[in-house]
Amino acid sequence: MAANELDGAPEPFFFRHSARQILFGPGKLSELAEIAKARNVERVVVVMDGFFIGGPLEARVREVLGNVIDVEVHGVPIQEPDTETVEACRQALEDQQPDMVIAVGGGSTMDTAKVARILLSNPGSVEEMAGFERYYEPHRSVMVCVPSTAGTASEVSEMAVIGLKGSDIKLRYRSQNMTAQFAVLDPELLLSAPPSVTANTGYDALTHAIESYISRGANIMSDPYALDAIRRLVKWLPVAYREGDNLTARGHCHIGSMLAGVAFNSTQLGLAHAIAAPLGNIHHVVHGKANALALPAIIAYNEPELGEKGQILAEILGSETPSEGVARIRAELDLDIGLDEIVTTDEERETIIEAAMKSGNVPYSPREPSVEHIRAIVASMRQPIGASRPVLEI
């Protein structure tokens, strides 16, 4: 909050709040049975990341729920979700007619479950029902999300992104009726995540938090969520990366990711996500890595417009400039790669630039970009920079 903010009238704001109940703590997975019993649930479908099928996490979930209710487990392929994946999940839910849907896994699994469930009460194909801010009739079942990574915040997000099978098109869905009634954050589930997953998902969360904080849509309600997320992730994400069994670090990253998701429900994101999306769609770059490629350059580009928020970010990051700070964290997480490792021709770079300019996140950038600006940003991303501030010729 600015020093003089309380001297005048409060600024108008818009804030969306969809998270009904959030449970955090080691061992909270065991409370799934209590949630089910309290709502007289008789039949549950667990939508689970395929990585966990047949392993100890599936066994643990079945143990927690098995003595209480009828449980079916549907495995989601280990890939970015697409229309075929969602259709298979919807069919599994239709076959079982569950009173409760529990999504256990990363953002791909949670997005799959969220969309498949809401389509039960909104007839139409997965593609036909895509839309941003369209109305979806709520489904009678209880929706629970149990994230196994700290990054996407899909457990509290109103949004989901699903690929159109056989194409590079991404379908977007957004509705408060699609969100989970319960988000269960158990940091013990993060202990098995390898360092590369911790780095990629964690940097995604950090990008959510920072882009939410500096967004044109940021306001008095969203800023505290975004700032708390930034502080937790800056301090604890490198620790979680180095010390995978550090439960304290895992817990703070879990909370930080969730807080960032609550913030971006209202603020939207920015140019880092505008560039990251086509890197994922066209070149299949993991989303967190794509954000890591873009964020230092995007922050450097926006610094002239950040004002006091830029100073606050630099202080939290312990750096002279915010862009230098996010570059340092990127390097600490071994994500300091150059775009030239992925995008090798001028034609491919132009495709990325054109796609970025069409993103719905562009209007939320603190600094209004032109095509030439995006071209200069992409040029500055071509080589690794270590812990240095990117050099932009703008």
Can you summarize this structure?
The protein has 394 residues and is an alpha/beta fold.
Description:
This protein is an alpha/beta fold. The protein has helices spanning 32-38, 56-66, 83-96, 107-120, 195-214, 222-242, 247-267, 271-283, 287-302, 307-317, 322-332, 346-357, 371-380; strands at 21-24, 43-49, 70-76, 100-105, 131-132, 142-147, 159-163, 170-174, 182-185. The chain contains 13 helices and 9 strands. It has a 6-stranded parallel β-sheet, with helices on both faces. Helices cover 46% and strands 12% of the residues. It has 2 domains: 21-190, 3-Layer(aba) Sandwich (Rossmann fold); 195-380, Dehydroquinate synthase-like - alpha domain (Dehydroquinate synthase-like, alpha domain, Up-down Bundle).
Please specify the SSE layout and strand pairing.
Elements: E1 21-24, H1 32-38, E2 43-49, H2 56-66, E3 70-76, H3 83-96, E4 100-105, H4 107-120, E5 131-132, E6 142-147, E7 159-163, E8 170-174, E9 182-185, H5 195-214, H6 222-242, H7 247-267, H8 271-283, H9 287-302, H10 307-317, H11 322-332, H12 346-357, H13 371-380
Question: How do the strands line up in the largest sheet?
Answer: 1-9-6-4-2-3
CATH class of the largest domain: Mainly Alpha
Beta-strand percent range:
5-15%
Nearest-angstrom radius of gyration? 20 Å
Mean pLDDT: 91
The name of the CATH topology of the largest domain is Dehydroquinate synthase-like, alpha domain
Under CATH, the homologous superfamily of the largest domain reads Dehydroquinate synthase-like - alpha domain
Low-confidence spans: none
Structural class estimated from helices and strands: alpha/beta
Total number of domains: 2
Task: Spell the H/E element sequence.
Answer: EHEHEHEHEEEEEHHHHHHHHH
CATH architecture of the largest domain: Up-down Bundle
The helix fraction, in percent, is: 40-55%
General form: globular
What's the β-strand tally? 9
The CA-CA distance between the termini, in Å, is: 30 Å
Query: Helical segment tally?
Result: 13
Report the sheet with the most strands, covering strand number, pairing sense and barrel closure: 6 strands, parallel
